[in-house]
Design goal:
By secondary structure, this protein is mainly alpha-helical. The chain is built from 4 helices and 2 strands, in the order ααββαα. The mean pLDDT is 88.
């Protein structure tokens, strides 16, 4: 993309690759991807991962340093939950502004014949 714009690539603005992280963090991403998601049924709110599966994943893949992997996996989950919450809030506020600009959200339909 930088080539098309005639710009020099700036490494500080490039997205990170998995290889940019330490091995323990890469393993945490791996474990995180195997765990199932928990969603609140009525509101559709993301609640995080099902942590009952964590010990089974650690033992199945015979992973070393489960406490370190747990720490990084939990950290990633917190970041993801916060991101999804902020996105839902932005969407809610945008919908709220949209409904206010459309006449306060009240739509009246009159069938007048004469």
């Amino acid at each position: 993309m930088c080539e098309q714009l005639g710009q020099e690539p700036d490494p500080s603005k490039m997205p990170l690759d998995l290889e940019d992280f330490p091995a323990e963090v890469q393993v945490a991403f791996f474990v995180f991807s195997f765990m199932s998601d928990n969603w609140e049924g009525m509101s559709g709110t993301y609640l995080g991962k099902n942590w009952d599966e964590f010990p089974n994943i650690i033992s199945t893949f015979e992973l070393e340093h489960p406490k370190i992997i747990f720490f990084f996996t939990k950290m990633y989950e917190r970041i993801l939950i916060q991101y999804r919450y902020e996105e839902a809030e932005r969407k809610r506020k945008a919908d709220e502004r949209k409904s206010k600009s459309a006449g306060g959200g009240k739509t009246y339909t009159h069938n007048v014949r004469g």
